[in-house]
Amino acid sequence: MVKCITIGERTIGEGHPVFIIAEIGYNFNNPDEALASIDLAANSGVDAVKFQTFRAETVTSRFTEFPEEAGGTNQFDEFKHYEMSEEMHQKLFNHARKRGIMAFSTPAYFDDADLLERLDVPVYKIGSDDLVNLPFVRYVAEKGKPVIFATGMATLAECAEALDTIKQAGNEQVVILHCISNYPIEDLGFVNLNVIRAFRNAFNVPVGFSDHTTTPTASLGAVALGASVIERHFTIDKKLDAPDAFFSADPDEMSALVESIRDLEKALGDGVKRPTSTEQDMRLETRKSAIARVDIRKGKVIAQDMIIVKRPGTGIPPRLAYLVPGRRAKQDIAADEVITFDKLE
Length: 345
Prior knowledge:
The chain folds into two domains: 8-268, TIM Barrel (Alpha-Beta Barrel); 277-343, Type Iii Antifreeze Protein Isoform Hplc 12, CATH 3.90.1210. By secondary structure, the protein is an alpha/beta fold. Strands 5-4-3-10-9-8-7-6 form an eight-stranded parallel sheet. Strands 1-2 form a two-stranded antiparallel sheet. The two termini are 51 Å apart. Helix 9 (217-224) links the parallel strand 9 and strand 10. Helix 1 (31-44) packs parallel to helix 10, helix 6 (134-141) packs across helix 7 (156-168) and helix 9 packs parallel to helix 10 (251-268). It is built from eleven helices and twelve strands.
């Protein structure tokens, strides 16, 4: 069984509710939109909101463009525009705590991790872009907080190396997220959710899914395959002038996703095959047992052709019906009456 970890007061892993993260990132243009994002995410029922912590100078060269699918803009200019001060981080994190949900972030550099540590985040997220940045992975792991890391663009060997780096830093509190680094994923054929099974078989840590699709299908499939964490991009409005807003879940979509995951968790159950409490009447009325074909008088030796196996299931079960022929009736048994052992000598 995959080990569980603890984030804040939440246990993450098999047998526990899915930990649902609204990835706000930098899907806002001012403090009011950021605070509204937290409020609407909390109203949607998520467990946590996540932001991104970076400074343009330490995250990218000035001469690097985003791929066309991500807008094709200059990376440095975009990151510069969306930088958040430490005071802004503190304001947002405090607001999330007041709303009863966790807040954390993805640092992009050593200084960013230090900032988040000063704010006492309950967990760190390492983005797919830093999966192979092992010195940084180690630095974050050495903070001693749980680490969630995404695996977009990675091979299984690279995922294993990152996980080993975290554990070598003395940190066993890890979640590994299956992720495809396209924004958005338009063809579900690329999602490859069975990687969740591969991760569960290869690594003794909770596994999750960072969803960059535009429908709930992949997230629900991930939960069915054993994902303990679901991360979904979130926006207050898909028309918002923010880089990820157009493919992010809006409040109605996030609420529906959370509700569907919670319903799916109920439907998945504990995996133990047994009759449910709701099946007890059906079990008696629709299973079959030994029934008298004809009137059987008291003292009569019962022959094979005097019984039949049919509904209901309140008599001698089919697997024991062979014991009835050759026995004497202890009492009168009417045709179509259930035969039980206490009616036989």
